[in-house]
Inverse folding.
């Protein structure tokens, strides 16, 4: 399989793109069939695939349908929060306590929306586990050194 004439895209990448497009089209068709009242068995028969694969196509389509608007909503909220922060920021920098509290509340909400708090908590837990392993190793090594010195 060679490159498309005039294309610098490698053949493998073109194949993956074609597969992605085909899958997206199958998902769209499966969703349209389901919305029209067809069963997963009907979808499976239409594509000549196993029923579980038809379920997966339908589920993936529903997940995308829900996820994309949710991502857009998060982006909209982030823009609103940034606008609010811009409004209180000059007063917060000048030392206005109410503006500082408002800015902190806005920043906290942004952090929650972006999952920063969750990420920080997960990282702390992970580092805590790593530190515990180091502590255990050190205890072992110190104990071994004391035993060797005797």
């Amino acid at each position: 399989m060679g490159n498309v004439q005039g294309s610098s895209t490698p053949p493998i990448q073109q194949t993956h793109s074609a597969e992605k497009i085909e899958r997206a089209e199958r998902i769209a068709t499966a969703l349209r069939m389901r919305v029209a009242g067809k069963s997963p068995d009907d979808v499976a028969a239409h594509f000549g695939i196993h029923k579980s694969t038809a379920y997966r196509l339908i589920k993936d389509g529903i997940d995308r349908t829900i996820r994309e608007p949710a991502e857009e909503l998060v982006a909209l909220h982030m823009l609103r929060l940034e606008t609010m922060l811009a409004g209180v920021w000059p007063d917060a920098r000048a030392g206005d306590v109410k503006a500082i509290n408002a800015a902190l509340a806005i920043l906290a909400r942004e952090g929650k929306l972006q999952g920063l708090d969750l990420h920080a908590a997960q990282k702390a837990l992970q580092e805590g586990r790593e530190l515990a392993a180091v502590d255990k190793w050190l205890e072992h090594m110190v104990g071994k050194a004391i035993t060797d010195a005797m």
